[in-house]
């Protein structure tokens, strides 16, 4: 049995150096070596007063401590304060030494609710880390891969009420309206008058977090969620964009704007060659915007449901005559262009009435078949060709090792399965800091 003469060795005084007490291969050593955080001072300078009030916490310490919480999935700010006080590596990283004390947890909530509320500080920090990755040649800017994932809202799924919600018109609808009227004029139709009345819908609205959205999709958990619309660069899987929406927003709605946001911010006008997307983005507008910009878009078509009658794919489109040819070789001619951007092609009911394939073609009492073709259908067909090509198949296969891996890492290691806060702005901050932590690890 080993005995000691010191009744309480915990009270011994020792001369130690904190530098030697942190392992040489510790993650925070690499972060400290390769990431330059000095840019934070310039970003937050407008939100601090140099002449009024007590001396504030060093902004670099503030954000580095936040980063620790996201790197090590420490959800609670109180727990983060305790963890920093207990960890030698955290103390070394924050430069507070052995005798210093971690900032109080209330500092974080106050800054989030007051100093940085309504600002772009977290977005700016994320962007600067991406630019540092670009300086290290870790971002190619040639192939971007985008998808979305759901994040469980900090809300009770049972506490909600049904409300009539006014749906804000999407920006692309103005572009669509102009294209529709141009198409109608080209075919001798009158332009449609502007649609002034806003659309309203009955939706479930959470009483806990009203800004979240009720997710109800096949294969997804039902309830109140947010969506993280994320883009990664395929070279080293660096996350280049994160944008949070309520869980009931379609993936394709925000895609075009976020793509342009990245192209302008990072100067990829001449470098971006291709994008890979899931089938949820396969809309005429997304196809139109990507092809129009000269980008090779790769996304699979949505699985088609079984039809009791001939499907649209069984009709052949004759571009020169602008007609559809049915399986019995009869022509469906142009009728009109709808407000939603579809051209209606209709058959001759007299010919359909004596057609031997009538029962297989339509159940319409008027014995007339209608086929719709979007005014941007040519762009969709081009994207389908991209996806079916050998290059397209190789590009789409990269999703599993890039964007899907990025989401898995965020949820398993960094706590992105659940929202830490309530409200879209705060969830956006969580997503940006999570993505920043992932990029720094890269």
Concise structural overview:
This protein has 442 residues and is an alpha+beta fold. 38% of the residues lie in helices and 17% in strands.
Q: How would you describe this protein?
A:
The protein is of the alpha+beta class and 442 residues long. The chain folds into three domains: 15-119, no CATH class; 127-303 and 380-441, 2-Layer Sandwich (Nucleotidyltransferase, domain 5), CATH 3.30.420; 312-378, no CATH class. It is built from 16 helices and 13 strands. It has helices at residues 27-34, 39-44, 59-71, 77-86, 88-94, 105-115, 121-135, 172-186, 251-266, 284-292, 349-353, 358-361, 377-388, 390-397, 403-414, 424-441; strands at 143-152, 160-166, 200-206, 213-215, 223-233, 238-246, 274-276, 296-298, 316-318, 323-325, 331-337, 342-346, 370-374. The strands form three sheets. Strands 1, 4, 5, 6, 7 and 8 form a six-stranded mixed β-sheet that branches. β7, α10 and β8 (296-298) form a beta-alpha-beta unit. α4 (77-86) packs across α5. The radius of gyration is 28 Å and the shape is elongated. 31% of the residues are buried. The mean pLDDT is 88. Residues 325-442 form the Transposase DDE domain. Residues 17-113 form the Transposase InsH N-terminal domain. It comes from Paenibacillus cisolokensis. This is Transposase. Pfam families: DDE_Tnp_1_6, DUF772.
